[in-house]
Amino acid sequence: MKPLPIDIFLQAANDLEFSKYKFLASIKEVGEFLHKNRLYPGFAELINTYNLLNDIINKKFELTDRLPDKLIGFDLENKKAVYAKEELSEDKIKIVFDFINWALPKLKEVIEEGRAIFDFIDKNMKVKEIGILPIYKKEGYFIIPDNEENMLLIYRYEMTLFPAENDQYHTLKTKLIEAIESCNSNRIKPEDIKIDLIKRFPELPNPAAYNIYIDIDFPFIETVLPIAKRKLIRELAA
């Protein structure tokens, strides 16, 4: 699935119809993925684009900072190309903003469809600690089913802070440790899995461990796992 580049909106100044075509084709593709309950990465990318466009609308004076650079010559002495910001006339700037205002409701409609899927899965997903939790919870393990493939998956996680403009966000790095066929997993208790992990990986002698429950069959990589990671982050940051 191709991302929705911001250039689509800036290029509308020179070819509005082509930009509309590319925009509609892009959100149609995301919509088709949503109809198959596949949320990521398209859902997150649409939200980022929607927020960015709203930011541009609210700060019109920043539009020129987002314009693509235009080649204006060559610096032969330093052997490099010379670029400058492309300038738009008032008429072309109006076309860009009219296009953005036309696109925003259509973006929001698709985002709301994705959010409904997200909320449904989030509501039906439970996170429960395994055994006694240590004070340090930024590293550990979680167990989660892949119901489509009838597998029980064991992941190691590490939560870190990701710096962003004027803020910081928690991110969760994960590594698959083991996949167990569900027909075999019924005989294995989560507590026994935790004990086995402690023996196998002594560098975490008292790890945080969580069991994530979900009964519905949704695509694992594109939907279940990303939502589980977000839900676990909320649990760890609480």
What would you say this structure looks like, in words?
The chain has about 240 residues and is α+β, with helices and mostly antiparallel strands. The chain has two domains: about 5-125, no CATH class; about 125-235, no CATH class. Helix content is about 45%, strand content about 25%. It is built from seven helices and seven strands, in the order αααββαββββααβα. It has a five-stranded mixed beta sheet. Strands 1-2 form a two-stranded antiparallel sheet. The longest helix is centred in the middle third of the chain and has 34 residues, at about 90-125. The chain is elongated.
Instruction: List the secondary-structure elements in sequence, H or E.
Output: HHHEEHEEEEHHEH
Percentage of residues in strands: 25-35%
Low-confidence stretches: none
Spatial order of the strands in the main sheet?
A: 3-7-4-5-6
Number of domains: 2
- Largest sheet properties: 5 strands, mixed
**Morphology call:** elongated
Measured distance between first and last alpha carbons: 34 Å
Number of DSSP strand runs: 7
Structural class by sheet pairing and helices: alpha+beta
Our Rg estimate from Cα atoms comes to 23 Å
Percent helix, as a range, is 40-55%
Integer average pLDDT: 86
Q: So how many helices?
A: 7
Task: Please write out the topology.
Layout (H helix, E strand, L loop, with lengths): L6 H4 L5 H20 L6 H17 L10 E7 L4 E6 L4 H34 L2 E4 L9 E8 L4 E14 L2 E15 H4 L4 H11 L7 E6 L6 H18 L1
Parallel strand pairs: 4-7
Antiparallel strand pairs: 1-2, 3-7, 4-5, 5-6
